[in-house]
Amino acid sequence: MEPLPTDVIDVRFSALVGFLFLKYCTRELTTWAEMLSRVTRECQEQFCEIFSEICECLQLVFGIDMREVDPINHTYVLVSTLGLTYDGVGINGHSFPKTGFLVLALSIIFIEGNCVPEETFWEKLGRVGVHVGIEHSIYGEPRELLTRFLVPELYIEYRRVADSDPARYELLWGPRAHAETSKMKVLEYLAEIDGSEPIAFPVLYQDALRDQAERAQAKIATDMAGASSSVMSREFSRSE
Length: 240
What we know:
By secondary structure, the chain is mainly α. The chain has 10 helices and 6 strands.
């Protein structure tokens, strides 16, 4: 793996973050003792605070969640945030996970009413240090990441605004984003960052609730169609 960028990762625990990336890529569990052994003696005395900072960095920048799976033995697993399955490791010359960018993109689209003009999208990303046309230490060039990878992977829909001249574009969630995550999961993620609850964002909360209801209705319809098809198949078999 390439060296960790010092503008994102504190050099004092870059070895630990590199170790965690390897665990993430190999889908292996890690323990508190293993992580503790990857930092200097000085850092070990403040490891609880450092651990919290690292977890926040992994989630916000790289889109990786650290989850404790065995509280007795203090064993952890690293998984993609929001249940997304595409991390872009190894694309555009960078070996770091790109899920953090995808989470940012999906969050902006959701916050902006589920459809955001391209210029507004880049303006919002610029506020967090991700600028179109400028190489990012983690994500590479963001427009390339969006159009060459996230759009073909069906996470983002990038469509031309009807009758726009000159052409203007807008961004929406793609079908893969809808399949792998939900508006409520994104809202819970945003509320966690804010230190609040989803209901603290009433407009987004109502939108997420509608999305949940629509998903439930679609599942019921699919289950009923499947059950009906099964009954018809059995009846057809009996009549032969």
